[in-house]
Amino acid sequence: MTDFAPIQEKLTAITTAHADYAKSSFEAHKAYLEKLATVKAPDQAMQITTEHMKSAYETFVAESQKIGELYKSFFTTAFKPMTTVSVPSLKVV
């Protein structure tokens, strides 16, 4: 019988990481738009946009690596290679 608890824990961690990233990304975009709405000069808008895009890219890369490691951990747990396989012998009659 296979114990599915470690697999379920890994899937829960992956799901939580995705949800946390989505929430933080939404909040960052919301703050960006609120800041952008108060800008009066085009150069300020460009500065805010540049900062936001740089931050969004860096966050995306960091979160992608983190989530990628979670997937790697999941697959190594869920699909362990079989070390011993017992195959019943077949008798030809």
Could you please describe the fold and organization of this structure?
The chain has 93 residues and is an all-alpha fold. Helix content is 75%, strand content 0%. The chain has helices spanning 5-37, 42-78. Helix 1 runs antiparallel to helix 2. It is rod-shaped, with a radius of gyration of 24 Å. The model has no long low-confidence stretch (mean pLDDT 88).
What is the secondary structure topology, with strand pairs?
Elements lengths: L4 H33 L4 H37 L15
The gyration radius over C-alpha positions equals: 24 Å
Helix and strand sequence: HH
Separation, N- and C-terminal Cα atoms? 33 Å
Given helix and strand content, the structural type is mainly alpha
Number of helices: 2
Helix content: over 70%
Task: Summarize the structure in short.
By secondary structure, the chain is mostly helical. 75% of the residues lie in helices and 0% in strands.
Question: Characteristics of this structure?
Answer:
93 residues, 2 helices, 75% helix
